[in-house]
Design brief:
two-stranded antiparallel sheet, WbsX, Glycoside hydrolase family 99-like domain-containing protein, alpha/beta, TIM Barrel
Amino acid sequence: MSSEPTATPDAAAMAAPTGPVAASSASSVEPQARTSPSVTQASGPSTTPPSSSADPLLIAIVLPQFHPIPENDAWWGKGFTEWRNVAKARPLFKGHHQPQLPGELGFYDLRLPETRAQQAELAREHGVGGFCYYHYWFNGQRLLHRPVEDMLASGEPDFPYCLAWANENWSRAWNGSDREMLMAQNYSDEDDEAHIRSLLPHFRDPRYIRVDGKPLFVIYKADHLPDPARTFARWREIARAEGVGELMLAQFEWSGAGSGADPRHVGLDLSIEFAPDWRRLGGKHFTGWKSRWAMKLGLLPKAYGEHNFFDYNRMVDGVLAKPTPDYPFIRCVSPGFDNSARRAQGATILMNNTPQRYRRWLEAALAWTRRHQPPQRQVVFINAWNEWAEGNHLEPDATHGRAYLEATRDAVKAQAVAAASPDGDRT
């Protein structure tokens, strides 16, 4: 969710990424309809199993940019979806994994219920217990909302979900052109009320994910709100008055202002780590004089000097070395990052990511969650399920097939075994 048409967090500007274009043992971290004395029940059955410290809830972030909308038709050309960026990508050097083309799901359209059902089935089979869909609201105007609203109306698929408000302006900055504004955020008290009322039907849905019995709603950049504490207080007041009860309000913790600060100071309940963490990338590659000379002589690809290259393993090590925050915090992992499909220059590419290295990171995040989180926050986020133009997806591709999904499943199984062992808490 950024200035890109997708509004998803973009790492090209390292100091200030532009952002996205969008349970206790059977008790507290769960979809609304799970059976638990601590969870307010909604009508309708759910077949989703409960979470526990031995089986945390994995929530994968979903980009809804895979269907055309009139606004994108006007801004980017008739029929534009994220697939246009994905398909035009080209390798920048020998062995570069571009274009990253979809595997068994194909170039899908999220307006189709069959597509959404296939996604849910794949996720469930591989240990992902819920989706977090980017939500785009601009002073009463919604964008890219059809898949989630169709899902709400139909009740299908029966798969847990929550929403994350991608509260950034949309401009043309994502593709390296000028900063022509496409859609701006305009905040007001009236808009705060209209916004939260539009979300109440989701919060009441049996599938909606709750943490500690409260509907989870995520704000991408809380520091962009003029008075976040006022906004969040009003939201809570309306939710109570309308019978939804208490809300679980969270922010994605990125590298901007307020990152690392206690979210409770502005009226939030917790922070969710946003991966990759741009503050922990490690040293940039191909910046020394030897590399520059090699590029000048044609011994190294010129792309090494035109884009930002970092090592995936080094980034993971940096993230895992972060001190444990003294405020409520949920961890997040990512299978990779490469947004060269969107950016002809200045892309950010994490090199050397593999399913095995991703599994190592996820296992570590699951172990950290088991050790450090209370029962009501046994949750780990994954960024992302389908950020194809950022090289950041669990969905099967034409090269790796289901390898990243299988790594997810294997990490969950390994941590379940560790949790059941006598020394499980020391892993």
